[in-house]
């Protein structure tokens, strides 16, 4: 729109006209085509179960109009509380929301439809719940949680992380998990598995051990699973009294009772396919309902769960704590091995003393930020850029 010209606005907050609406589709398209802005207010935060048939032509017309689509609170057709999208929905360029962000603006598939989100304070503060359902860490929160060595620190006091990863088939997974672990704030990384030579060739700082985890020396946390094929690694880690992060192959056929019986915390880091297998569901179901899936897994396993993917969520087993949603994710992370880096990174944060929910959400935050700094990237570049992401978090928050 040129300066001084009149904005032409078409509002979708029309009364629903029933079957008549279908007959006026052409007229609707003409109205949309003439508008610079299209204001979508068909459904608000109470919308459930997807758009009703009568409203679908409005969403389609908005999508095809070429006007800037401005959604009021949420694009119509998305579920405000969960981020689910049933059927068709409006795709907005801008979403103007009031009082607080809604889960549907943060969690895919709905988050993909919001465009740029602007929060406007209209004085709703006193009426909002004291504890949100979902929260997102910002730089300052992460800076407060990151471990910092003190004057009295030594490599053991900073925490030692043990990495159980790799196999003859996937030696690279061991290298990538160790790369993440070396950047996560622990004072030392022990590697246990058949990939010792490959790990040392790339990371000479690593303490490599041949035997099973139970014989590898003391650690303050275990990171188990990337590229693993069998062996006593998982059982030894589960039997230990230190925190454990479990990923990839170690998640296959994971025994919920064994996890629940642990005396130390456990963090599971499945992608949607692994989460689906653990839940006995379809992958598409998990991707369509991430919030329910991560909560359900945390409850079933009595563990903290980090569900990976286009939106990363971290849930504790208790219903009371907000689910954390990661705000730094980027599609550049969709590359083989980036999850292995995350496993090592979160294991290292656990060893440095962070609680599982903090280790998972701080790990995901740094991982996403590192990927943004590194892009275009391969998985090892993500690990290489974690120190720059860490500095960025601390410098901006200083
Ligand atoms: N450098 C290393 O050492 C690395 C090692 N890694 C290690 O590998 C192990 C396996 O982990 P993962 O997550 O990749 O496999 P997994 O959970 O079994 O899911 C496989 C699913 O993908 C699908 N699929 C496959 N190809 C597809 C295609 N072209 N297009 C579309 N779909 C395709 C396939 O579907 P299907 O072919 O069965 O239809 C199936 O559903 C794990 O230990 C990990 O740590 C990785 O981290 C990478 C770096
Ligand atoms: N579209 C996306 N947007 C943001 N992050 C993504 C996307 N796709 C994948 N990721 C992230 O990339 C990583 C992939 O991990 P994973 O699925 O375990 O792969 P791999 O086993 O190859 O390492 C996870 O941290 C995940 O959250």
Automatic annotation (TrEMBL):
Its cofactor is K(+); Mg(2+). In the C-terminal section; belongs to the NnrD/CARKD family. In the N-terminal section; belongs to the NnrE/AIBP family. Keywords: ATP-binding, Lyase, NAD, NADP, Nucleotide-binding. It catalyses: (6S)-NADHX + ADP = AMP + phosphate + NADH + H(+); (6S)-NADPHX + ADP = AMP + phosphate + NADPH + H(+). It comes from Streptomyces montanisoli. This is ADP-dependent (S)-NAD(P)H-hydrate dehydratase. (6S)-NADPHX binds at residues 173, 227, 271, 340. GO terms for biological process: metabolite repair; nicotinamide nucleotide metabolic process. The keyword NAD applies.
